[in-house]
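Quick question about two entries, pasted in order.
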Amino acid sequence: MRVRKKPGAYEALASIEEFFIEKPEVHKGAWQSVFGNNHPIYAEFGGGKGRFIVGMARKHPEINFIMADAVTEVALKAAELARESGLENVKIILFDLRHVLDIFAEGELDRIYLNFSDPWPKRRHYKRRLTYRGFLSNYKTVLKKDGWIHFKTDNRSLFEFSLNEFAELDLIMRKISLDLHKQDELDNVMTEYEEKFSSQGYPIFRVEVRFR
């Protein structure tokens, strides 16, 4: 996602202290203490402007939600939306997902969401896709043994690539959908991209996966 640089974006983000965690690495292994409870932790990697994570936090006050993104301006939009919501079970962090093992301890996350990740369509960039096996290996470390990854995209090529990666690693797959909005998905919260693409008639692909 190409985002226009905004002067002072990081300073504005850092000022939203109740929702933005400026140094997430210092909380590795202690994220429940950040929320002040022992509720499960669900994380969205590459979270866009925060509509999904705030929507999920509103629907599920019994869950702690973390949204991570590498783009300051995007994280700022999400933090602003979180602040407007007044919810206490959502936090925003800023970091490169290649360093996820520096942020979360082994088995610290109960679920991971990958929503409308950058498809990196050029073949030489396949290792940058968030469903590439290198990333998946790290997710396996930070997820609990029975933790699931929920993946949504509008990009058929990325979905096919991802299914092949999941199969190569012998992941358990369930709820595979080639057109999500034609099904009765009661707990679905749409992202900004999802609303845009589905309103234009594009199918939304979705699957849930778990390591054996």
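Here is the second entry:
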Amino acid sequence: MFLRICLIVNSVASSVTARRRVIIHKILSADHDVNLAETSRPGHATRLAQSAANDNYDLVVVLGGDGTVNEAANGLAGTDTALATLPGGSTNVLARILGLPDDPADACLVLLDAIDRGSIHRIGLGAVEGRYFLFHCGVGFDAAVVEQVEARGPWKRWAGHPLFVWAALDTWVRGVDRRNPPLRVMGPAGDELAKGFMTVVMNTNPYTYLGSRPIDLVPGLALTDPLAVVTLEGLRSTSLGPVLAGALRGKDLSKQRNVDLRTDIRSLVIECDPGAPYQVDGDYLGASRRLRFTWTPERLSLLMPEVR
């Protein structure tokens, strides 16, 4: 199968180097028509992906972190142009979910095999206030952690996961009120589903990775399933510790104290008093007092080395 491919590269992503960019371009170009485009600012990948879809490219391959992949997905949602990801960031959640190797060149070879097999599938996407997300949107505590990490941008490239751990501890100690839950999760009929300090609206599992270990909030949740919503009703160490331990072991969190877990969700609203920070696929988007979520099936074509 011969494809027209747009290769979008974020050169400032944690694992992207000039040498890797050249290698990836060479591997893809051996059998396909490849156009290289580099991002230069936040949101640029969305415009590049939209242009690729308008120009009838078959596939957009992203070499960058999850934020760049998210931007590209927002540019391709609702089109026939497919998306593929190569690991280029510090965590690469989507690439790991799809079972890709950590090395971008090795992952590229896996993608080429998937292209030969025609392994392109339509997946559902969650959206918050019109912004699509591929694996999750976090509201409250975890978004405050992401905000801290992004405020130390240059350190993110070199420190990686240790920086996230430090930011989580610092935010927990100094940055949040652990007594008064600010979030109210509301169903489509306006009924209150849960109150808490942190809510993760998940489009697939796992939530993220701690080193090489997945943090499984909703084991078995696939990219074709409606959303799952996990709310932490307590932020004390006696609440967080067992939840994190259970997630690292892949346990069913619905039986965990101080956790509200709901599946098969197609729409909901989170009200925040005061306004709470939120992030999509690891990118901090700001703070809001009200966030509306929706789920749309078969919204994006995704090149998948193996169906999940």
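Reply: The mean pLDDT is 91. The CA atoms of residues 87 and 104 lie 6 Å apart. Hope that helps.
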